[in-house]
Specification:
By secondary structure, the protein is of the alpha/beta class. 43% of the residues lie in helices and 13% in strands. Helix 8 links the parallel strand 4 (150-154) and strand 5 (185-191).
Length: 202
């Protein structure tokens, strides 16, 4: 179905509608989507061709895959992983975001940074900021997760920060087996030290 205007025009129209009628932005976006012939904004957005790297990457992933998103601090690893989760939810799957690094407010702020209204996905998105996060904890929390769920772990090196937790390699093996058994896609965010020089060491 062809849109009556480019997506950025429709978003601007929704923002104006939100201000004029004093309704939440997600409600205004949904009204615009209905005018365009879609039930809600998430369905409209799901039909758009994906140009973001996260959408292209998601198209190449299969249930059971493990993905490592690694970069130096401040390079957009969390935003990229969140965009992967959003792309998964737009395609009808659930997403879970486990973070030892950020607060719930930090993660929700990142939705705004990529111009996505969190309320569109609050029933599909599970956010967990517990200090107890480890492979065992994640496994328990995902006991009822549906096949196709995309799971983000932020970030890898913090999983074994507590002495009582198993070694990192052991935790990754456990999560790998869970991903394959249950058909989950697990994305690990990994911090690469600023001192790393790829010209000296691969």
């Amino acid at each position: 179905m062809k849109l009556s205007a480019p997506i950025y025009h429709l978003k601007r129209k929704a923002k104006l509608l939100s201000r004029e009628q004093r309704i939440p932005l997600h409600a205004a976006l949904n009204r615009i989507a209905v005018q365009e012939g879609y039930r809600d904004w998430s369905l409209l957005a799901a039909q758009l061709p994906t140009s973001r790297p996260a959408g292209r990457l998601l198209a190449r992933l299969q249930p059971g895959d493990l993905v490592l998103v690694g970069a130096r601090p401040g390079q957009g690893k969390t935003l990229m992983s969140l965009e992967l989760a959003i792309a998964a939810m737009k395609s009808g799957n659930r997403a879970a975001f486990f973070t030892l690094e950020y607060s719930a407010r930090d993660v929700l702020d990142r939705f705004q940074a990529i111009e996505v209204e969190y309320a569109q996905f609050d029933e599909l998105f599970e956010l967990d900021c517990s200090d107890a996060i480890s492979a065992d904890y994640i496994t328990r929390r995902l006991a009822a997760a549906a096949r196709g769920t995309l799971v983000v772990v932020d970030y890898l090196q913090l999983l074994d920060q507590k002495r009582e937790n198993p070694a990192l390699a052991e935790q990754v093996r456990l999560l790998k087996s869970i991903a394959r058994e249950r058909g989950l896609t697990i994305v690990f965010i990994s911090q690469i030290d600023r001192s790393y020089d790829p010209t000296k060491k691969r």
